[in-house]
Design brief:
Elements: H1 3-16, H2 20-34, H3 47-62, H4 67-84, H5 90-106, H6 112-133
Helix pairs in contact: 1-6, 2-3, 2-5, 4-6, 5-6
Protein backbone atom coordinates (compact mmCIF):
# COMPACT_ATOMS: atom_id res chain seq x y z
CA UNK A 1 0.00 0.00 0.00
CA UNK A 2 1.16 3.49 -0.70
CA UNK A 3 1.36 6.03 2.14
CA UNK A 4 -1.52 7.91 0.51
CA UNK A 5 -3.69 4.76 0.47
CA UNK A 6 -2.87 4.10 4.13
CA UNK A 7 -3.86 7.66 4.99
CA UNK A 8 -7.13 7.40 3.04
CA UNK A 9 -8.08 4.19 4.85
CA UNK A 10 -7.18 5.63 8.24
CA UNK A 11 -8.94 8.95 7.72
CA UNK A 12 -12.09 7.30 6.40
CA UNK A 13 -12.07 4.79 9.27
CA UNK A 14 -12.09 7.70 11.74
CA UNK A 15 -15.36 8.77 10.10
CA UNK A 16 -16.83 5.28 10.59
CA UNK A 17 -16.08 5.06 14.33
CA UNK A 18 -19.02 7.26 15.45
CA UNK A 19 -21.50 4.90 13.76
CA UNK A 20 -19.59 1.65 14.30
CA UNK A 21 -22.63 -0.27 15.59
CA UNK A 22 -24.70 0.74 12.59
CA UNK A 23 -21.81 -0.04 10.25
CA UNK A 24 -21.52 -3.54 11.72
CA UNK A 25 -25.26 -4.07 11.25
CA UNK A 26 -25.02 -2.82 7.67
CA UNK A 27 -22.08 -5.13 7.02
CA UNK A 28 -23.78 -8.32 8.20
CA UNK A 29 -27.06 -7.42 6.51
CA UNK A 30 -25.22 -6.90 3.22
CA UNK A 31 -23.06 -10.02 3.69
CA UNK A 32 -26.07 -12.29 4.15
CA UNK A 33 -27.94 -10.53 1.35
CA UNK A 34 -25.01 -11.26 -0.98
CA UNK A 35 -24.67 -14.88 0.15
CA UNK A 36 -27.25 -16.33 2.50
CA UNK A 37 -25.28 -19.58 2.71
CA UNK A 38 -22.80 -17.75 4.96
CA UNK A 39 -25.37 -17.14 7.70
CA UNK A 40 -24.89 -20.56 9.39
CA UNK A 41 -21.19 -19.80 9.85
CA UNK A 42 -22.11 -17.14 12.40
CA UNK A 43 -23.85 -17.25 15.78
CA UNK A 44 -27.58 -16.57 15.89
CA UNK A 45 -26.96 -13.51 18.06
CA UNK A 46 -24.50 -11.29 16.22
CA UNK A 47 -23.99 -8.80 19.08
CA UNK A 48 -20.52 -10.01 20.04
CA UNK A 49 -19.60 -10.75 16.44
CA UNK A 50 -20.36 -7.14 15.45
CA UNK A 51 -18.11 -5.88 18.26
CA UNK A 52 -15.32 -8.25 17.23
CA UNK A 53 -15.58 -7.15 13.61
CA UNK A 54 -15.27 -3.48 14.42
CA UNK A 55 -12.47 -4.03 16.97
CA UNK A 56 -10.50 -6.15 14.50
CA UNK A 57 -10.95 -3.65 11.70
CA UNK A 58 -9.85 -0.87 14.04
CA UNK A 59 -6.69 -2.73 15.05
CA UNK A 60 -5.81 -3.59 11.47
CA UNK A 61 -6.42 -0.05 10.22
CA UNK A 62 -4.27 1.33 13.05
CA UNK A 63 -1.48 -1.05 12.01
CA UNK A 64 -1.44 -0.28 8.29
CA UNK A 65 1.69 1.86 8.69
CA UNK A 66 3.50 -1.31 9.69
CA UNK A 67 1.94 -4.05 7.58
CA UNK A 68 4.79 -6.46 8.29
CA UNK A 69 4.05 -6.14 12.00
CA UNK A 70 0.38 -7.06 11.60
CA UNK A 71 0.91 -9.98 9.18
CA UNK A 72 1.36 -12.63 11.93
CA UNK A 73 -1.94 -11.63 13.56
CA UNK A 74 -3.69 -11.61 10.18
CA UNK A 75 -2.25 -15.05 9.39
CA UNK A 76 -3.52 -16.37 12.72
CA UNK A 77 -6.93 -14.91 11.93
CA UNK A 78 -6.91 -16.65 8.56
CA UNK A 79 -6.11 -20.01 10.16
CA UNK A 80 -8.81 -19.46 12.77
CA UNK A 81 -11.41 -18.69 10.11
CA UNK A 82 -10.82 -22.03 8.40
CA UNK A 83 -12.10 -23.62 11.59
CA UNK A 84 -15.25 -21.53 11.31
CA UNK A 85 -15.87 -22.87 7.80
CA UNK A 86 -14.51 -19.92 5.81
CA UNK A 87 -13.43 -20.79 2.29
CA UNK A 88 -11.23 -18.73 -0.04
CA UNK A 89 -14.20 -17.80 -2.23
CA UNK A 90 -16.00 -16.26 0.76
CA UNK A 91 -13.42 -13.49 1.03
CA UNK A 92 -14.61 -11.78 -2.17
CA UNK A 93 -18.14 -11.64 -0.77
CA UNK A 94 -16.87 -10.24 2.52
CA UNK A 95 -14.91 -7.61 0.60
CA UNK A 96 -18.00 -6.63 -1.39
CA UNK A 97 -20.02 -6.33 1.82
CA UNK A 98 -17.29 -4.22 3.42
CA UNK A 99 -17.10 -1.83 0.47
CA UNK A 100 -20.90 -1.56 0.30
CA UNK A 101 -20.99 -0.80 4.03
CA UNK A 102 -18.36 1.91 3.70
CA UNK A 103 -20.14 3.41 0.69
CA UNK A 104 -23.46 3.53 2.54
CA UNK A 105 -21.96 4.86 5.74
CA UNK A 106 -19.55 7.42 4.33
CA UNK A 107 -21.76 8.66 1.52
CA UNK A 108 -20.00 11.29 -0.60
CA UNK A 109 -16.82 10.88 1.47
CA UNK A 110 -16.48 7.42 -0.08
CA UNK A 111 -14.68 8.77 -3.11
CA UNK A 112 -13.18 6.57 -5.83
CA UNK A 113 -9.78 7.14 -4.21
CA UNK A 114 -11.04 5.99 -0.80
CA UNK A 115 -12.71 2.98 -2.39
CA UNK A 116 -9.48 2.13 -4.19
CA UNK A 117 -7.45 2.39 -0.99
CA UNK A 118 -9.87 0.11 0.90
CA UNK A 119 -9.87 -2.32 -2.02
CA UNK A 120 -6.07 -2.56 -1.90
CA UNK A 121 -6.04 -2.87 1.90
CA UNK A 122 -8.69 -5.57 1.95
CA UNK A 123 -7.15 -7.42 -0.99
CA UNK A 124 -3.75 -7.43 0.68
CA UNK A 125 -5.01 -8.59 4.06
CA UNK A 126 -7.52 -11.13 2.75
CA UNK A 127 -4.79 -12.57 0.54
CA UNK A 128 -2.65 -13.11 3.64
CA UNK A 129 -5.59 -14.75 5.42
CA UNK A 130 -6.40 -17.03 2.49
CA UNK A 131 -2.80 -18.12 2.12
CA UNK A 132 -2.47 -18.80 5.86
CA UNK A 133 -5.63 -20.88 5.78
CA UNK A 134 -4.35 -23.24 3.08
Amino acid sequence: MTPQQVELVKSSWIQVIPFADTAADLFYTKLFELDGSLRPLFPADLSEQRKKLMATLGRVVASLDNLAGVVPAVQALGKKHVGYGAKPEHYATVGSALLATLAAGLGPAFTPEVEGAWTVAYGTLSGVMIEAGR
